[in-house]
């Protein structure tokens, strides 16, 4: 895994977006189209701002996939990952995406997993834009993550650390409001992406970053699986890299 450390989270986000944008343009030149995965969360603000403003991308031939969503949460809720992606990414692009496949958290979960699985099976992912949780999660695959789940999307239970992070970032007023279940892209599906751009700023992520990069590959640190990806790059700022 390539590790790039910047002075600030803004610089880290800009560098991550620039690398990812170059990969999207490359895929379009090669195949006439591209497909991406897009994560949510406060750690992705700067990266998504820069990616949406990137020059030279024909977004009309790009298909997007959402990584995860809370089960039972309507899109109108402030914590909805669908709402986040629509407002902070899809609606900010200079042209409409070819398609964006959102995860419907208020649909029947297992049917929704099957629907998304059929869609992503037809569309190999060129670039995955992801982050790492304070508990080391990748998407909503909290520890201990299932590294062997074969389905592209799965239902998961959110642990206490993950739920505290969501409340701490301000998406929910109280911990009790944070749902306990979610639909998440599986670890195996994320690892099928041709390239992974992982953006992880801020001091609160420093322990997870150290465990991801310096420990062994283990389901107890789900993001540690990125060590095994041949084209993964992690973009840090000084604060998130402080314990390395």
Structure explained in plain terms:
The structure is a single chain. 31% of the residues lie in helices and 19% in strands. It has 244 residues and is of the alpha/beta class. It has helices at residues 9-31, 45-52, 81-88, 109-121, 160-168, 187-191, 206-214; strands spanning 2-6, 34-38, 62-66, 68-70, 99-101, 127-130, 153-157, 181-185, 195-200, 232-237. The strands form two sheets. Strands 1-10-9-6-2-3-5 form a seven-stranded parallel β-sheet, sandwiched between helices. A three-stranded antiparallel β-sheet has the order 4-8-7. The protein has a single domain (2-237), classed as Rossmann fold, CATH 3.40.50. It has seven helices and ten strands.
